[in-house]
Amino acid sequence: MQRYIWVRAAVAAAAVVLGGCGGHDNDQTGPHFVSDITVPNVKAGVNFSFDIGTVSGSRYYFTDRNNASLDVIDISTRTFVKAIQGSGSLAFAGLGPGPSATSGPDGATPVGSLIYVGDVNSVKIVDPAAGSVLKNIAVSTTGVRADEGCLDATHGIFMISSPEEQTPFATFINTTTQSVVAKVTFTDAGGKPTAGLEACVYDAASDNFYVNVDGSTANPHGELVKVPGAAIRAIPSGGTQNYTSLSGVAMYPEANCDPTGLALGPGTDIAVGCREATTGSPLLMQIFNRASGALVASLNAGGGDQLAYDAATNRYYNAASRWTASGNASTNGACTAASPCTPVLTIVDAGARSVVTRLNTGNNAHSVAIDPTTGLIFVPYSSATAPAGCPGCAANGFVNGGVSVFAAHS
User: Fold this and answer.
1) Which listed residue, 200, 217, 233, 300, has the most CB atoms within 10 A of its CB?
2) Are strands 179-185 and 32-37 parallel, antiparallel or unpaired?
3) How confident is the model at residue 18 (pLDDT cuts 50, 70, 90)?
4) Inside any domain, residue 2
5) Residue pLDDT, tens place only, 163-175
6) Could you tell me which InterPro entries the record lists for this protein (predicted)?
7) pLDDT the model gives residue 19
8) Residue 145 pLDDT more than 60?
9) pLDDT score, position 26
10) Confidence class of residue 25 from pLDDT cuts 50, 70 and 90?
11) Which sign does the torsion angle of CA 83, 158, 209, 250 carry?
12) How far is CA 176 from CA 156, 173, 275, in A?
């Protein structure tokens, strides 16, 4: 994800008023900081560019553009294991020549024993046991990334979004043949390309994909789109169809949201992370009824990117890198010395639909994954001074960059 540009400015001193009293949060009776894990070539002063993380088995995986790799961390020992890098046509794009749109890897999704990873022009298939990139599946030739994905394990269909294409589209891949079977373009009912695509999830109970659309003519600050799995499977093999013409498709307005993360919650709940770019607007997490599209809760708990739900704790975990001391969006949603951010891990009770706590996190900490077995939460972050805009990060103990580990419970 991580589409907005951080503005570099002189770092100003600021106080961060959160759940802790400065430094790492060490209240052992509830969610708390556990430790930091060092990542190769990441240190003080380095702008660490990473993206989506996921847990599969006993390992945590996340995408690392600085090292052009899928990084592997052992959960039980909380240690860095390896950086999986491809070579030749199987190499990840890395930082690229410009913004995150031309960088990779990006999304990471477990598919059986493999990990499907979004990259520039492609999806790469990684075998984590072998520590190698097995295959490159081309989805474009324009030089921009395939970003975040989600899996329909029942029918063996993987969906991944290409948000920065001239007309954004989603690619659907058969996980048995490892080949593209369909594409869905996103031109809205007004005849204009949507503003982009963000996270997607698949709901097996209803056989629907859900995806956040950054903006359309009808909903300029975002809409949640329900895409029936049956409609995707009805597209002739190798065919392309526009989302508005799919049978059973529905668009749910997200108001002034500028959506990012997405997570299925308990019952019929689906949570949307908002990262508002409107100066001074409340940073929200919105919870919808995914069957009807009705908004059932709106919490001042946004400003994040990746959003995760853990059934064991019945809580959402929002990597709120753009959170601020006021709970309102910084200037144009960006983090600067003049309009600083105070990154937090926001934890929300999914049953009560209310905020449980906020824990200090490091600079640009926009990615989160939780291991349901141990309750350990993994949050990568950049060094305190790069990118600029987090004057309180060093004081809170997040100096060098790497991966922070939190515990969901005592």
Assistant:
1) 200
2) unpaired
3) very low
4) no
5) 999 999 999 999 9
6) Haem_d1_sf
7) 42
8) yes
9) 59
10) low
11) positive
12) 7, 9, 36
CATH classification of the domain holding 258: 2.130.10.10
3-class secondary structure per residue, the chain:
CCCCCCCCCCCCCCCCCCCCCCCCCCCCCCCEEEEEECCCCCCCCCCCCEEEEEEECCEEEEEECCCCEEEEEECCCCEEEEEECCCHHHCCCECCCCCHHHCECCCEEEECCEEEEEEECEEEEEECCCCEEEEEEECCCCCCECCCEEEECCCCEEEEEECCCCCCEEEEEECCCCEEEEEEECECCCCCECCCEEEEEEECCCCEEEEEECCCCCCCCCEEEEEEHHHHHCCCCCEEEEHHHCCCCEEEECCCCCEEEEEECCCCEEEEEECCCCCCCECCEEEEECCCCCEEEEECCCCCCCEEEECCCCEEEEEECCCCCCCECCHHHCCCCCCCCCCEEEEEECCCCEEEEEEECCECCCCCEECCCCCEEEEEEECCCCCCCCCCCCCCCCCCCEEEEEECCC
In a domain? residue 374: yes
What domain range is 324 assigned to?
32-407
- What integer best gives the mean pLDDT of the chain? 93
Classify residue 8: in a domain, yes or no: no
More confident residue, 2 or 283: 283
Return the HEC string of 85-127: CCCHHHCCCECCCCCHHHCECCCEEEECCEEEEEEECEEEEEE
Give 91-116 pLDDT, tens digit per residue: 999 997 777 899 999 999 999 999 99
Each residue of 307-339: pLDDT tens digit?
999 999 999 999 999 999 999 999 999 999 999
Question: In a 10 Å sphere around its CB, with 0-12 CB exposed, 13-18 middle and 19+ buried, how is residue 149 labelled?
Answer: buried
Overall pTM surpassing 0.70 (yes/no): yes
Q: How confident is the model at residue 16 (pLDDT cuts 50, 70, 90)?
A: very low
Residue 3 belongs to some domain of the structure: no
| Residues comprising the chain, all counted | 410
d(CA 407, CA 379) in angstroms, rounded, equals: 11
